[in-house]
Amino acid sequence: MTGETVVLELAALVMLQENQIREKTDRHTVRRYAEQMAGGAKFPPVKVTLTDPTNETKGYTLVDGWHRVEATKVNGGGTIVADVVAARPEEIAWFAVVANRAHGLQLKLTREVRRGVFRAYVRAGKHRTGRGRKVKAVSEMAQDLTGIVSRRQIPSWMAADFPAIYKAMNGNGLEGQDLGGHKERDMDEEYAKAAQAALNEFSACMRAMNDNRKARRVLTTASAHVLELAAAVTGKREWPRAAVVTADDF
Questions:
Q1: Distance between CA 106 and CA 76 in Å, rounded?
Q2: How many whole angstroms separate alpha carbon 50 and alpha carbon 71?
């Protein structure tokens, strides 16, 4: 699937906040994009990567295009056109940085965003030369990160965030097999947090609804999704009638 352009269901798109390098999505930009889309403007496809490269049924994770996705949602759209790219979980944030520096809404470079870009750069392995474990010189890193972090700042940030890499920079220049004391991302934990956040938002929206008929329709749909997911996770094809919620139950 890598390299193809596909049409994706927004409901099946994984959007992890940790992959967005910005501090937050800009609501004014979302509104502007939504208005332009409603007027017929065509936007470039968003970028996604397979959530699990070994299993296409697990869907796609958003790499670049947060504002376009949110604008599509504002307009009531259910699908979006996406280019599929190859990216490991630790590379996604850096891919987003590269995309934002090349086009679209530019990053607001607060100190926290700069630090996040630096960490994304290192976690993606861009601080190494070639495919080996040799660490680049500070001057090379500074060139890669022009406008993000200065040559003077890199050593102190590296020492604080990636001590093993900092040690390699001041030793033989060869990095160990870890990421400077940082554990690899526990993707299941991140997916669990994102799912919980979505459930909290779902609960808040349901409580805010005044039209019971609309609420029933949403709950019926939600129940169907829960049963489908439960079957996929546990392998159990049939669930007791008590677990099924329909509009007649309200």
A1: 26
A2: 22
Average pLDDT over residues 63-84: 93
pTM, two decimals, is 0.66
pLDDT tens, position by position, 202-239: 777 777 788 888 888 888 877 777 776 666 666 655 55
What would the 3-class secondary structure string for the chain be? CCCCEEEEEHHHEECCHHHCCCCCCCHHHHHHHHHHHHCCCCCCCEEEEECCCCCHHHCEEEEECHHHHHHHHHCCCCEEEEEECCCCHHHHHHHHHHHHHHCCCCCCCCHHHHHHHHHHHHHCCCCECCCCCEECCHHHHHHHCCCCCCCCHHHHHHHHHCHHHHHHHCCCCECCCCECCECCCCHHHHHHHHHHHHHHHHHHHHHHCCCHHHHHHHHHHHHHHHHHHHHHHHCCCCCCHHHCCCHHHC
Residue in the block written with tokens 């607001």? 108
13 touches 60 (CB < 8 A): yes
- State how far the Cα of 95 lies from the Cα of 19, in Å rounded to an integer: 9
Q: Average pLDDT of the chain?
A: 80
Beta bridge partners of 46: 82
